[in-house]
Design goal:
18 strands, Neuraminidase, binds 2-acetamido-2-deoxy-beta-D-glucopyranose, 271 residues, four-stranded antiparallel beta sheet, 4 helices, mainly beta
Length: 271
């Protein structure tokens, strides 16, 4: 069972993600106070009290629906026009993190214990049972799935050990649906969390929660295979990230609370 603080962080991240993180580009001025408070006024809460610890959302525009996977095992969707919440498919699990919806209408779920799952009308299929602590996933237009493993050393319940150890145990991976094979694209992330594809699919952005930054991994072009800075010095630990319609990204931030005296050390670690 994950510590309550982690669940709260997940919930907070979810809330932030939907409701008030302004889209940022790599050069954006972040969370300036006026922007922050003015967008707060327009918040609407969806499904309050009806969803058990959802960690991520994914919108299917043509269905007008918002999908999520809750800790009660239900993959649900919320029909926006009439505000109806539908329990779609049930999985015998309570260890879901990130999700994405696919072109075909399936939902890909990161289950930190069972691996990478595909949920469709037909049922649940485990795409890769060998990966643990998967955190977020995105589908490319060729059907490939890019996903993160936050820590190959620790479990979600031990996330604080990963933080305190301060070593990069995170990975970016790719699942090829034709070959039914997973490959590690890059290692050495400080808690790889959210992952998003750029609009042109030339790169993916990976959030590194413990470093308060996001990195860019090039999939195509002259810089293919290289990992570079995307945005640094975020005002919190980045959690999930989604592409916005204009090509910028929405990033959910985790407020990291530290006990007296630890803050300086953490800040040093971030340098
Ligand atoms: C909400 O809309 C969907 C179709 O978009 C429909 O199938 C469903 O029955 C509606 N639910 C309610 C409670 O009206």
């Amino acid at each position: 069972m994950a510590p309550i603080s982690f669940l709260i962080a997940c919930l907070l991240a979810f809330t932030l993600e939907i409701f008030f993180s302004p889209p940022v580009s790599s050069s954006a001025s972040l969370l300036s106070n006026s922007k922050y408070s003015s967008s707060m006024k327009d918040l609407i809460k969806l499904g309050e009290g009806c969803v058990n610890h959802p960690e991520d959302v994914s919108v299917v525009v043509r269905k007008g629906a918002l999908y999520t996977a809750a800790r009660d095992g239900w993959v649900k969707y919320f029909i926006l026009h009439n505000e109806t919440l539908v329990n779609w498919k049930h999985i015998d699990s309570n260890t879901f993190l990130g999700i994405t919806t696919t072109e075909e209408g399936d939902v890909i779920v990161c289950d930190t214990e069972k691996g990478l799952l595909k949920v469709s009308e037909a049922g649940v299929e485990v795409l890769d049972p060998d990966v643990r602590f998967t955190n977020d996933v995105i589908e490319a237009s060729d059907g490939s799935l890019y996903f993160t493993v936050s820590s190959k050393k620790y479990t979600p319940a031990e996330y604080y050990k990963d933080l305190v150890e301060g070593k990069p145990h995170g990975q970016l991976l790719k699942y090829d649906p034709e070959l039914e094979e997973t490959t590690v694209l890059h290692e050495g992330f400080y808690f790889a969390n959210g992952v998003a594809l750029s609009k042109d699919e030339n790169f993916v952005v990976v959030c590194e929660s413990w470093k308060f930054r996001c990195r860019r991994y090039w999939l195509k072009g002259p810089r293919q295979g290289r990992l570079e800075s995307f945005i640094e010095h975020l005002p919190g630990g980045p959690d999930n990230i989604n592409l916005a319609p204009d090509g910028s990204f929405w990033v959910a931030l985790i407020k990291v609370y530290v006990i007296d005296g630890m803050q300086d050390r953490l800040l040093k670690q971030r340098e």
